[in-house]
Amino acid sequence: xxxxxxxxxxxxxxxxxxxxxxxxxxxxxxxxxxxxxxxxxxxxxxxxxxxxxxxxxxxxxxxxxxxxxxxxxxxxxxxxxxxxxxxxxxxxxxxxxxxxxxxxxxxxxxxxxxxxxxxxxxxxxxxxxxxxxxxxxxxxxxxxxxxxxxxxxxxxxxxxxxxxxxxxxxxxxxxxxxxxxxxxxxxxxxxxxxxxxxxxxxxxxxxxxxxxxxxxxxxxxxxxxxxxxxxxxxxxxxxxxxxxxxxxxxxxxxxxxxxxxxxxxxxxxxxxxxxxxxxxxxxxxxx
Length: 287
Ligand SMILES: C[S@@+](CC[C@H](N)C(=O)[O-])C[C@H]1O[C@@H](n2cnc3c(N)ncnc32)[C@H](O)[C@@H]1O
What we know:
By secondary structure, the chain is α/β, with parallel strands linked by helices. It has 13 helices and seven strands.
């Protein structure tokens, strides 16, 4: 069958998909083609169809379109976009000499996690807010860190000697561990951990980062909000997203309500609020 015919249909579906989902047309076309090329029955039906226009009204086309949409939806819902690219960057980082340039590898790692990828265009603004809320903190726990610690500007936070990243996602933790190993200065450590495991006895941090995690927990495991509220830190920096992970939909107001409600129920005192182009945040004192 001519690939042009398949591509023309994919481009047409991609236009529609991109109106509701957060991805560009070229990316959408490639994802649709990947699903369709693996579907022999669909390819055979398309090559036997005399009229491509009429074909889009058949059950087999509609099912294939739904299958491609679902693949795109579930792909976008994953935080780690490409596990292989992430693993390759981590391996390279492990081999990189101490005086090598880690920046391109760190950029690849960050680009492969949805939460850090969406901050790429305004990272400076974001770090200005976080660093100003950190003040002279010496210790920090990053709860549900994703791969954010690989971008942390350690040089701009000289007081911070202990950054502990925790996440349940093994790929994200391996990436942070690879970076911590390359740094080799002991300031950053990473641990695979699930919120349901709770906190270690006796640990206390100056600051806890809870970036884009409170709304996730509120949605997926609301019973664990109580554990989050007992975070062993004096100050907490909480954020939520302005746009949904998958759909092109503004969610700032909803996310603000969730993080404000959480802070109120936890008995935190909000001392500052901030905003970046894709995120809303609160700084709160826990004591
Ligand atoms: C929206 S991402 C935010 C990542 C990072 N904080 C950032 O802002 O770039 C949420 C992160 O929380 C982690 N997470 C969600 N539920 C968790 C849980 N119950 N225990 C540990 N980590 C969790 C996910 O694996 C994911 O990396």
